[in-house]
Every structure is written in C-alpha cells, then in structure tokens.
Write a structure and sequence with these properties.
Blueprint lengths: L7 E5 L3 H12 L3 E5 L15 E2 L7 H20 L6 E2 L3 E3 L9 H10 L5 E3 L1 H4 L16 E4 L3 E3 L1 H14 L3 E3 L5 E6 L2 E7 L4 E3 L2 E4 L5 H6 L11 E7 L9 E3 L4 E5 L3 E5 L1 H7 E3 L5 E3 L1 H14 L8 E8 L9 E4 L6 E5 L3 H18 L12 H5 L1
Parallel strand pairs: 1-2, 1-13, 2-9, 5-15, 13-22
Antiparallel strand pairs: 3-8, 4-8, 5-7, 6-7, 10-11, 11-12, 14-17, 14-20, 15-16, 16-17, 18-19, 21-22
Helix pairs in contact: 1-5, 1-9, 2-9
C-alpha cells in the first residue's frame, strides 16, 4: 500500500472520471465517498460515443496521455477477453470530398507519431475490416487505425463500482445535486441538495459539463467550450460492422448486444432545442436523417431503429485540452474535465489519485492544469 497524505476524499460525479478516481483512491486505502445527483453514468458518460483513440491531430502531450489511456484499456481487456463492452476492432475515418479534406495531412501526422495507421482506397477497405459500404468512402480514401477500439462506459462504471464497494467505498445517489464546501479558504467537504454534509481531506469535482460553472461558484476560471450533443442507441441488429466509423456526416460505433451508437455534430446543432425548464426537445426528422446517414455507410444499408436517445452537454474545455489536477487557490480542491472522457477515463483516475495521495505533481499532467485559464 502507498503512503498517503490524505485519509478521506469526496468525489462529486459518478461518471467515468469520478468513479475511476474513486477506485484508485480506495485501492490506496483512502476512505472515499462518491456523490451523484442520480444513478451512476447518468450524465455525459452515459451518452458518449466512447471511441478509444488518439487519431487525427492534437498536441504531443495530449497524444501521449491518450496513448497511456488506451494502454490501460488493453490491460483491462486482457483481464476480460470475452467482454462485449470493451473491444479493439479498429477505427476507420474519412473526410468529405472537398477542399477541407485532410486525410493526407492526418495520415502523415499520425505516422510521424508512430501511431498505427493505414491510408487505403475504398476498394481495399473490405480487406482490413468488415461491414462498410465502400461506395460511401470519398476518392481521397480512408485511414484505418487497427489499434483503436470502444468501450461501453455504463458497463465499465458498473464494474468499477463493484470493486469500489468491495474496498469500502460509499456511493450516495439519493441526495440530489451536491456542491463543494469551502471553509477557511480550503475545500473541506461537500453538501447535497438534501442538506447532508460529507467532510473530507480532499474534494474532486467530476461533473462533466457542469465543472466550469461549479468551479466558478468558488471564483475559479475554467475555459468552457461545451456544446449540446445527443447520442442515438439503436435496437439490436445482426450486422458485420466491427470498427468505429468517423465519417463526414455520421459516427457509428458497435455496442453491446448487437446495437449501435450513432452521433454527429450537425445533428445536435440542427435537432436539439433547449426548453425554458432546462430540458431538451429533439427534432424527430433530424434523428431520422441521422439514422439514414448511418445506414449509408454500413454494408447493405440496413434499416436502423431508435432504442434510446441521450442528450446533454458534451464536456469540452475552452482550449480543447484536458483540465486535470488541483485548483491551486483552494487547497484540497481537484477537478477533472475533458473531452475524450472514455479514452482518458482510466488514466486520469490513476494520475489524479496519485497526485491527491502523494501531493506530487505527475509530469504527464503538466500542460493540463486548471491554472492555465486564470493566468490568461
């Protein structure tokens, strides 16, 4: 067991960042309570495409962190080789046939980082991965990344919570929303909407798209680029598609039980309306168009039917890079806020728990610290 400088922690948020961090702290012998405003994975983790990747172009530190994240999933996959909620069957992406097509540049960047990538014409796709309608692939070709995969985050969160409970961790889901309690200039606990207080040596804010607003209540600035997004889950369908598809009009990923997860930025922009009560209305015609776009890229152009639709904020920091670590102005207060929550889910929990337990900063988080926004 690792020596620790804290004995207790409260985590607000039972998505992948909160639960992953909680398990890692509990493994170190720290008493942990996770507070959530509803059932686990009821926020962004429950409506994530959950594509495990470091594809296309981003900063080198972000790429390294994502690769470490994928490594942890490979370790987990070795423990559960037959899991239907974690698969590494590759990813396939192509761009529109116009001046914005960046497949050439993306491929060159990926191989410069030694990221496993194959740039292929449409006719060669069937030879590397099944289930794609090659007619949908543009003349510039597609990139196949054989090392990519996907995870079903609600299933993973359930698995982690079982371990968490076995280690003595406590999950509280019936007290409404929670807020961080600050006394004497430091975070000392959290209080739920029902008025129950939970004292701790350290607090983690892991509430997905709500992180910037909640941090602002304590005078802390975290850049926020969160858009509204929705994810369609289909009814089961017998289909050979195995890779995650990211195409000009739609993203499609296999999911447990023969279902598929589908989303697209344009669909959220055109199809979601915010109501006065804070809820969302979804345009059925936009959903139908999205399903049609998905069918076009799938072999046989199958009829896809909606099972569920999840809608809400997609956590994206203002500069696109993760926000992980201590709020330096408020001792005992930590945050985890990022796009690519699935890819980073296990590694962020591991590194954040390390920093909390040891009071040492991990070098892989050096460029992702919250104070970069207040410095500006």
């Amino acid at each position: 067991m690792t020596d620790t400088t804290i004995s207790s922690a409260v985590i607000i948020g039972a998505g992948i960042f909160g639960v992953s961090t909680g398990v890692q702290l509990a493994r170190r012998g720290i008493r942990v309570t996770i507070l959530n405003d509803g059932p686990p994975a009821n926020g962004a983790s429950g409506r994530s495409l959950s594509w495990l990747n470091s594809a296309r172009m981003r900063s080198e530190p972000y790429h390294r962190l994502r690769m470490a994240g994928i490594d942890r999933y490979r370790t987990l996959s070795a423990r559960f080789p037959d899991a239907d909620w974690l698969r590494f069957d590759g990813g396939l992406t192509w761009d529109a046939d116009d001046a914005r097509n960046a497949i050439d540049a993306a491929y060159r960047y990926e191989i410069s980082l030694a990221y496993d990538a194959q740039w292929l014409p449409a006719a060669a796709i069937a030879g590397v991965t099944p289930g794609i309608d090659a007619r949908a692939i543009t003349p510039q070709g597609a990139i196949f990344n054989p090392g990519e995969g996907w995870v079903d985050l609600p299933a993973l969160i359930g698995l982690l919570l079982t371990e968490f409970s076995g280690l003595g961790g406590v999950l509280v889901t019936d007290q409404g929303a929670a807020r961080v309690v600050i006394e004497g200039g430091r975070a000392v606990g959290a209080e739920t909407a029902a008025g129950q207080r939970f004292a701790a040596d350290a607090i983690v804010l892991a509430t997905g798209p709500a992180v910037p607003k909640m941090a602002a209540e304590s005078g802390q600035t975290i850049g926020d680029g969160t858009p509204v997004a929705f994810l369609v889950q289909t009814k089961p369908l017998a289909h050979p598609l195995r890779a995650v598809l990211n195409t000009p009009r739609v993203a499609v990923r296999p999911a447990p039980g023969g279902t598929f997860s589908i989303d697209a930025d344009w669909a959220a922009d055109e199809g979601v309306t915010l109501r006065a009560d804070g809820g969302y209305d979804i345009d059925d015609s936009v959903v139908a168009t999205l399903l049609a776009e998905a069918a076009k890229v799938m072999e046989g152009n199958p009829k896809l039917e909606v099972a569920t639709i999840g809608v809400g904020g997609k956590p994206i920091p203002g500069d696109g890079e993760p926000v992980v670590g201590a709020l330096k102005d408020i001792p005992g207060y930590y945050v985890a806020f990022s796009h690519s929550g699935a890819t980073l889910g296990l590694i962020v929990g591991e590194l954040l728990a390390y920093e909390m337990a040891t009071c040492a900063e991990h070098p892989m988080l050096a460029t992702f610290r919250p104070e970069r926004f207040s410095v500006r």
